[in-house]
TrEMBL record:
Family per record: Belongs to the ABC-2 integral membrane protein family.
Annotated TM spans: 47-68, 80-98, 130-153, 160-188, 194-212, 224-245, 257-277
Keyword NAD part of the UniProt annotation: no
Nucleus among keywords: no
PROSITE patterns named in the record: ABC_TM2
Main location: membrane
Subcellular locations according to the entry: Cell inner membrane; Cell membrane
Protein name from the UniProt record: Transport permease protein
Domain ABC transmembrane type-2: residue ranges: 44-284
InterPro entries for the chain: ABC2_TM, ABC2_TM_bact-type
Source organism of this protein record: Arthrobacter silviterrae
Membrane topology: Multi-pass membrane protein
Length: 292
């Protein structure tokens, strides 16, 4: 029986992120493989997921909380109450974004040998990198929750849902940018340096180590609104709202319209970046094997 034109399927045609769902067993294997490779020969293993952010937190807390006076005390009323919780709730989210995007942008080149040998959905590699970063994120989140409980944490359901929305925003953004720069890095290796620079900017341009009120005071309402469009800024503020604010008397407040405006904006922007990254990836992936 002759095949009609509609029956013919071009070999190696990508179905995009839908292929990642269909090949979720392969995704699970890739995540497991990345975790094993990363900690092969390591004495501490996954404990490094606690050590690195812990050291980072101590350095930032001493430099900013103690030496620069960001911690509120009896002699410093202008600081932030429970600054340690404020700082750590932002750090773990920024670390998730930094690790996810950094590894996803290098994932295609790093798996070049496998890509040249067999065909499998190439989107699996950036997505697997984001999942590995999530594995490292949740133990840090557990430490944050324990610290919050010792500080009198009393969150509402709305605050917990805001935290989930913040995580989703960062996950979508990391995946979208990971697909974009992962594909670009095959053709232009300068992309790795650009990503490193972008991650450095993201760390300092988000209100992790300082209050949003400082930004609003310095920039004014119009420029502050532009600053607030950044999905990372929105996500960090959701974590402050969910984890830090319930450990204080609530007088510090949150950015205006965080729940009604900025969280939806963050979700829309991150989803748009994911779509952009996916379209770019599908357009460029046809020559990955040749370029690698």
């Amino acid at each position: 029986m002759e095949s009609t034109k509609d029956d013919l399927v071009r070999p190696g045609t990508s179905g995009g992120l839908a292929d990642v769902y269909r090949e979720r067993f392969l995704l699970k294997l890739l995540v497991r493989k990345e975790l094993k490779v990363r900690y092969r020969g390591s004495v501490l293993g996954i404990i490094w997921s606690y050590v690195k952010p812990g050291v980072q937190f101590v350095v930032f807390y001493l430099a900013l909380g103690v030496f620069l006076g960001m911690e509120q005390s009896s002699t410093n009323k202008g600081g932030l109450a429970n600054y340690a919780i404020y700082l750590f709730s932002g750090i773990i989210l920024i670390n998730f974004f930094t690790e996810a995007l950094g590894n996803a942008s290098r994932s295609i080149v790093g798996n070049g040998g496998l890509i040249k040998k067999i065909y499998l959905p190439r989107q699996l590699f950036p997505v697997a990198s984001v999942w590995v970063s999530a594995v490292h994120f949740f133990p840090q989140l557990l430490i944050l929750v324990v610290a919050c409980l010792f500080s009198g944490w009393h969150p509402s359901l709305l605050q917990l849902l805001a935290a989930v929305a913040g995580f989703v925003i960062v996950a979508l953004l990391s995946t979208g940018l990971g697909l974009l720069f992962g594909a670009a890095n095959v053709y232009f290796r300068d992309s790795e340096n650009f990503v490193d620079m972008l991650l450095m900017i993201a760390t300092w341009a988000s209100p992790v180590m300082y209050s949003w009120t400082m930004v609003q005071h310095k920039l004014g309402e119009m420029w502050y609104s532009i600053y607030q469009v950044n999905p990372i800024t929105i996500a960090v503020e959701t974590f402050h709202y969910a984890f830090w604010l319930p450990t204080t008397d609530g007088s510090a407040g949150i950015p205006p319209h965080l729940l009604s405006l900025w969280i939806p904006v963050g979700l829309v922007v991150s989803a748009a970046v994911l779509l952009w990254g996916q379209l770019t990836f599908r357009r460029l992936e046809g020559r990955f094997a040749q370029e690698l």
